[in-house]
Design goal:
This protein is α+β, with helices and mostly antiparallel strands. It is built from 16 helices and 15 strands.
Length: about 550
């Protein structure tokens, strides 16, 4: 096949897929593919020879780009195997010229390629060299299956093919970011200083006067000593009280989140059971159910009847300055909030504004915007120095209220609930026990879950929101500087929104993937326009805030 990659194949060849790899492999559905996409933009034509050299380098350093998962059974996960005998990495390179030199045409082409499943006889990735853009610009589309690696691993692998991507520098930058985040802690209480005064007399007092002065000094000393002891005791009591209150608050929200997450697992099954029992008329008393069982299901953001559409819509926003995000942090969230918190708040505001301004044509009334938006947050278990091609990720779901509220309150809510998600033990238990152990050694459990039950759970979240850290300096690929960088995670269920936040140099942008349904025409493009408008509105609001409130 190729000499340079043959030497590295034994490191992966013959190994079984891990439990997480196999889960993504078995969750593949024609209407919601487990595909990760990235689009790179260039102002000038790429050198085809350098592209082929980059792909050979990619396959040489990351053997999963040369292998395919095969020979799976009920008791064993598939094995990373060699592809067909005549396969070459050039077979996964596709050239395409757009019919119209517009960004919309590029996004349509990306969406049309996203919905195409991979050929199981070839490694599960593709690259598309796209020409025909205005001003002689070019684009490069990466596609890879989630079973190969998580989004971080795939992006690091393909970015390793660039000529100016310094892995050590990127790792050092990530470690510095983590250190700065850890250093943002509140100062402890400052102990007050005691002030004593010298009551001695400069004259030569009498014997009785000296005795009186000594007694006063002794009493003053005893008083100061008792005051200091009481002050220290009171201060310690206050510290312990405040820390206990903070701990109780954290535990309360944490327990509520864990119970709420478990309820999301149980609720679809209970509703399905209730539906079946009512249909069969076996249990009339099911109508007399608890209040929690009788409440309506939370409305989906963009739902519709029937099967999930096969066609998809893809769009991305204009670039937004990282400096503006930091200004929003200082204005509304202080030092505690993160860049991801700010952009997630903008995403929630985007959904709220869309539901307020756009309504489904088959309804007379506008949809209710007073509900809790369920968003999957991918959680990576990687260390900053881990650049391997593996699925070291799981996810948790966060619920954020979409009702109208001030920017400060919403950002505080987002930060608080994101911290609850990050502290949750459930993703670690799911990853270590259920996915990496049970699904690795008993893969038939996935086949026991019927399709209708998979639909129940994939329809629970309204969106998925992921954050990928891109290069911090201009990056070159195939002889040209990358001018744009976009990332798209897989979609969850019917009507859900896939949002990918990515940074490049001092800019960030968000890409959207949605279903292509006639009730919501051009949905992805509209959401991207609203996202930028909401972000700019927050920037203006932050600039109008007094400097004292931003400290």
């Amino acid at each position: 096949m190729m000499g340079s990659s043959e030497l590295t194949l034994p490191s992966e060849l013959g190994h079984h897929l891990t439990g997480m790899d196999n889960m993504f492999f078995q969750l593949e559905h024609p209407r919601r593919l487990m595909t990760i996409c990235s689009v790179w933009m260039f102002e000038q034509r790429l050198d085809t020879t350098l592209i082929l050299d980059a792909l050979e380098k990619l396959c040489s350093h990351y053997p999963r780009f040369c292998l395919v998962p095969k020979h799976g059974s009920l008791l064993e996960t598939p094995i990373w195997s060699r592809p067909r005998r005549n396969w070459k990495y050039r077979d996964n390179l596709i050239f395409h010229t757009l019919k119209s030199p517009t960004a919309a045409c590029l996004q349509q082409y990306t969406a049309s390629q996203y919905v195409k499943p991979f050929d199981g006889d070839k490694p599960l990735w593709e690259v598309h060299f796209i020409s025909g853009l205005e001003n002689n610009q070019f684009a490069f589309l990466w596609k890879a299956h989630h079973s190969m690696s998580d989004g971080v691993g795939i992006m690091k692998a393909v970015l390793a093919t660039t000529t100016s991507f310094d892995a050590k520098k990127e790792t050092s930058h990530l470690i510095q970011q983590l250190d700065r985040r850890k250093s943002k802690q509140m100062n402890t209480y400052i102990f007050g200083s005691s002030h004593t005064s010298d009551s001695s007399n400069i004259h030569h007092p009498t014997r009785a006067r000296r005795h009186q002065i000594a007694r006063e000094r002794y009493e003053q000393h005893q008083y100061e000593r008792a005051r200091r002891k009481f002050g220290v005791l009171w201060q310690q009591l206050m510290v312990w009280f405040l820390w206990s209150w903070q701990l109780w608050t954290i535990i309360k929200y944490q327990v509520y989140h864990e119970v709420w997450t478990l309820w999301l697992v149980v609720e679809p099954l209970l509703q399905q059971l209730q539906h079946v029992l009512l249909q069969l008329l076996l249990c009339p008393l099911i109508l007399i159910s608890p209040t929690t069982m009788k409440r309506k299901r939370l409305p989906r953001a963009m739902t519709y009847d029937g099967e999930q559409t096969h066609g998809k819509l893809i769009a991305w926003t204009d670039d937004m300055d990282v400096a503006d995000i930091h200004m929003i942090q200082r204005a509304f969230g202080g030092k505690e909030s993160t860049l991801n918190d700010v952009m997630l708040m903008v995403f929630v505001r985007t959904i709220r504004r869309y539901l307020q301004q756009y309504y489904r044509p088959q309804q007379q009334a506008r949809p209710n915007t007073n509900f809790e938006l369920r968003i999957i947050i991918p959680l990576s278990f990687r260390s900053p120095t881990d650049w391997t091609m593996k699925n070291i990720v799981t996810g948790n779901i966060v619920g954020i209220d979409v009702d109208s509220t001030s920017s400060s309150k919403m950002l505080k809510q987002v930060h608080q609930r994101m911290m609850t998600v990050k502290r949750s033990l459930m993703p670690h238990l799911m990853y270590s026990v259920i996915i990496q152990t049970i699904l690795r050694y008993f893969p038939f459990f996935m086949t026991l879950i019927p399709t209708w039950m998979q639909h129940l759970y994939t329809d629970v979240p309204h969106a998925i929101f992921t954050n990928i850290a891109g290069p911090i300096e201009p990056t070159y690929f195939a002889g040209q500087q990358m001018t744009g960088f976009h990332v798209l995670p897989p979609q969850t269920g019917k009507g859900s929104i896939s949002a990918g936040l990515v940074s490049y140099c001092d800019k960030v942008n968000v890409s959207m993937l949605t279903d292509n349904h006639p009730h919501y025409p051009d949905l992805a493009h509209i959401l991207c326009k609203i996202f930028v408008a909401e972000f700019n509105a927050l920037v203006i609001e932050a600039k109008m805030k007094p400097e004292d409130d931003m400290s």
